[in-house]
Structures are given as structure tokens and as C-alpha cells.
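Work Package 3 (structural annotation) set out to generate three-dimensional models for the target panel prioritized at the project kickoff. During this period the team completed the workflow that converts sequence records into C-alpha cells, so that structures can be stored uniformly alongside our sequence database. As a representative example, we reproduce one entry of 380 residues exactly as it appears in the project archive.
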Amino acid sequence: MGESAYSVEQLVGLVYDAVVDTGAWQGLVDHINRHLDGAYVHLHAHDHVARSNVGMVCSGHSEDYIRTYLDHYSNINPLTPQLYKAPLGRVVRTEELIDPGKLARTEFYNDWFRPQEDCFKGFGTVLLRENGRMFFAGIHLPARNADHKADATQAVLNQLRPHMLRAMEMRRSLAAVPGGHGVYQATLDNIADAVFHLDSERRVVWMNRSAETLCRTLRRFRIDAAQKLHTGDSGIDGRIHDLCRGRSAHILPFVIDTRTETGSLLVGQVMSVIQLDNPLGVFEHDVSAVMVIHVAGRGRGWSSVVKHLGLTAAEAMLANDLVHGLTLDQSAAGRGTSIHTVRNQLRAILAKTGTSRQSELVGLLAPFARLDKSGDGNEA
């Protein structure tokens, strides 16, 4: 476990955060990954009858592998039919679900598991199962250290399992309380972030007061006659639409430069909602994705963030360039260094921040960035 990794007690806290915030599931799997010092961690909702994934939150896999899983490999995953039969709440090993020799002869293993550090060994537990669907947690380990990490992995899943079960029960209880829907929405109405609930066609099912204010005051944000949300960026709109339709990654961080209009950046993320015959409560009925947006501050503690992450001066300058929309080539040219050096610096920043993609990195750092491009970490 690395120095920045969460303890099991802190991971339990993230589980209960998910009772009222679906986005906390993503933080949970990311921190389990760090706790185990590198693992493939996922929460799946799977339709056993249709043999298809109906929602996923994960950490460790690249965006390309997630997309191919959603588009194809979820339909031929040989582990999920066996896991569906496993005792509810019991942590099982991959080898208990399928013979390793048989697995090694499958397309799923050779084309999906094997290229990802041969990560077929691991553990899983079914948290919910009803009406032909299940919601389960799984952790897979790179082959090079699977045996070394097996005991710690099984232990953390066993420790978190009862809390994850309880968190799901609490979500359902909240939905069953008379007026629970109104309480939930009233809570979101009192936060500063703009929250949109979107259906599979990117239509706005519901939005809080901050989102209404955003649409009134910023012309680029609008809801058309068909109730579809537009951000003023067709590229972002397209990616949000794909996510809502279940054809892209499970989470999409984004940054929209509105400094001309507001003097600030808009930073947010869109996250697909796990569907398991509506286990998350009536207040998320027909919701395919939750979009959260907040206004980035004017250089809120950039130097302290740089120090906290342990970035060098050169790495901080690159991070600042990326946050302000420069490409790697532009950053290299502007700083008089080689593209090879810049790429190495980017890899170092991704490792230090626990992110796997440039878009994730920008989403993480943008709220703290200065509005100008001076980002060496030495500002007052």
C-alpha cells in the first residue's frame, strides 16, 4: 500500500458516501486500486438473461478496453454466468468460477484479459441479484504479482462487502421513505454545483436550482425543445450522448473554458448510473447519467496542489499547459524541450496523480488552476 493510499476504514467511509452520491462509487474503486498498489477494480451491473453489461464503474483499465468490453466482451465473458450462480455475498476466486485451462482457450481471455497484464486471477462477490440481473464487485490482479497480492485482495473485499451491501440497502430505504424523492432533490437544490439527471437520449430528466441558474445566465448552456442538454461544445455533447447510450466509458471528466463569459472555467464530470432494475431508488428512475458541474476558482491553491502531488517545477508547468488547453507539442515548443521529454513528464504526472488519461488529469487539476498560464507552482 502506497503512502497516499486510503486505509480500509477510509474506504468504508467512501462506501457510505455512495448512499447519497453515486459519484462516490468511482472514488471507491479508484482508492481500492491505490490501496492494493495496482489492481483492476470494478462494480458491475449485469443482465444475466441478455448476457450484457447494464452499468459499470471501474479503475485500472484503459478507456479503450472499457469501450471494447461494453461493446463486445461483456456478451461473451465466461465468468459472469458462473458468478450469477454464486452464493449472494460470498467472496469467490476466479478459479472457483471456471477452470483456468478452460478459460485460457476463450476469446475473452486471449483478447481481453491477457493483453492487460494477464489479469484473469482475482475475486468477486455478488451484492444484489434479482429479476435476472446482478450487481457485483470484482478485483483482478496482474499475473506478475497475483499470488503475492491475493490474500490482501481477498481481505479488503471481505472487509468492504458487508458495508457495500448495507449501502445498497440504505439507498433503497431512502427511496422507499415517503417524500424521499423530494428530500433528495431538496438536498441537491442546496448545493452550489449544477446537477443534471439525463436519460439515454441526453434529455434532462431533472436539474437542481444551480443548474437552472447556469442555463439562465450562460447562453451556451441550453435545453432545446426536445429537452436535450447542450453545452455549447458539440464534441462534449457527442461524448455525453454516447455515455448516456452506454457506448462509451463509464465516466467523462470535462473542462469548458467560459473565462470570456464568466471569468472562470467550468469543470465537471458525467457518470453513467448503474442500473439494476432501478436499485438506486425511485429518484433515479429513467436516469442514465448524472452530470455535475462547478465553477473553477481563480487559482485556488495551485502551489499547494503542486506541492501535495509532489510535482517538479517542469511537471507543474506541463500540467498547467494541459489545463489551459495546450497540446503536448505546443507545450514542448513553448518550453523549448523535446516531445520525448514532455511525454515522460506526462507519464510521471499521471502516476503521481493516480490518473490514467490526460482528460482525467485535466479534470482533477482544472479547479485549482490559475486563469493565466503562469503555473510553476511558485505564485503567492
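The chain has three domains: 8-176, 181-298, 310-379.
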